[in-house]
């Protein structure tokens, strides 16, 4: 009788991950009832898993509000995981130079589970700070780094990504129709530069490129700036600097 060797072992571990994923998506700390509904898990089961996770430091329960937060134990895991990405250490000097040249925020992301995970962010020396945080995720279809990645997908990979996927609007400018997104991806393939024009965050403009060599995708980088600071001249400069940085990094990968 055939068996599925890829079937996850340990249903409690799967449930714990579902809870952590839900906590990572919520803007405010949820209650037991909200977690139960959010992950489609019976409340008694969710409570048992949460109680164990609380004992292990993976979540933290506020006894007064009865709300759950990410546990401090995850900080050490996150730091270790981020440190294990060789790409981050390799490209850091290049990103620092790009930040100094543009005076804007520079981002480094990798693809995980059909999303961009931000693994490094060099803040602009100017006063305005953007919403993205290291460890946070962005959609492939709405972010500059994500669209740069999608533009490099084969027809089969792109079809698999788009199949049955709802392109939800994050802002009024988000591309929510597959035809519009595919037309944008065609332009990216022609120019080598992806653009997020207030599609992921209002009033923020981003330019992105991938980092790849020998058909291996290492990640993507982007320049993010408040749109009001971006003149045509600065945009052209950013495109040139971003492409130069991409070429310099790929030469050492």
UniProtKB/TrEMBL annotation:
- Name the chain's protein: IclR family transcriptional regulator
Family matches, as PANTHER family = HELIX-TURN-HELIX TRANSCRIPTIONAL REGULATOR, ICLR FAMILY (PTHR30136), HTH-TYPE TRANSCRIPTIONAL REGULATOR RV1719 (PTHR30136:SF35)
Ranges for domain IclR-ED = 73-253
Keyword Protease among record annotations: no
Q: Looking at the keywords, is Transcription present?
A: yes
Pfam families, per database record: HTH_IclR, IclR_C
Domain (HTH iclR-type): give its ranges: 10-72
**SMART domains per the record?**
HTH_ICLR
High-level lineage: Bacteria, Bacillati, Bacillota, Bacilli, Lactobacillales
Q: Print the keywords alphabetically.
A: DNA-binding, Transcription, Transcription regulation
């Amino acid at each position: 009788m055939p068996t599925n060797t890829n079937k996850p072992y340990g249903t409690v571990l799967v449930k714990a991950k579902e809870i952590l994923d839900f906590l990572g998506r919520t803007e405010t700390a949820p209650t037991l009832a909200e977690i139960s509904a959010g992950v489609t898990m019976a409340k008694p089961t969710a409570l048992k898993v949460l109680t164990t996770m609380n004992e292990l430091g993976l979540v933290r329960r506020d006894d007064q509000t009865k709300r759950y937060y990410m546990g401090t134990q995850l900080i050490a895991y996150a730091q270790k995981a981020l440190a294990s990405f060789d790409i981050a250490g390799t490209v850091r000097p290049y990103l620092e130079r790009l930040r100094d040249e543009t005076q804007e925020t520079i981002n480094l992301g990798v693809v995980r589970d059909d999303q961009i995970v931000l693994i490094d962010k060099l803040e602009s020396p100017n006063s305005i700070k953007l919403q993205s945080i290291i460890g946070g995720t962005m959609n492939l279809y709405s972010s500059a780094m994500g669209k740069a990645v999608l533009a490099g997908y084969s027809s089969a990979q792109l079809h698999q990504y788009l199949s049955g996927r709802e392109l939800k609007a994050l802002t009024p400018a988000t591309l929510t129709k597959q035809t519009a997104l595919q037309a944008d991806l065609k332009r990216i393939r022609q120019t080598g530069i992806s653009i997020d024009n207030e599609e992921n965050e209002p009033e923020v403009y981003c330019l992105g490129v991938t980092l790849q060599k020998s058909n291996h995708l290492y990640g993507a980088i982007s320049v993010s700036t408040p749109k009001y600071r971006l003149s045509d001249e600065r945009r052209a400069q950013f495109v040139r600097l971003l492409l130069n940085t991409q070429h310099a990094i790929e030469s050492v990968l």
